[in-house]
Amino acid sequence: MKSAIRITSGIIVGAFCVGSAFAQTASNPYDSSATQTRTQVYSDLVAWRAAGFNPLETVDYPRNAIRAGRIVTAQRGNAAGVGKEQ
Prior knowledge:
Elements: H1 2-22, H2 38-50, H3 61-80
């Protein structure tokens, strides 16, 4: 009976270790291949809308999206300190 309890507890501990290994965050928070939470997606949408992008406007779609993407990228670069002189 003791060995069954030890084996079962070992399996449970192993499952938690594997689960926590897969729960690691991405090294780059703006990596497009990494999965994002709803909050992150919503904050991206808010940033794009603040930069002038309207997802319902289809007339100037490609130019509007590219311009807003450049603005958001520049803002994130400034927030991260990229391009600042030391």
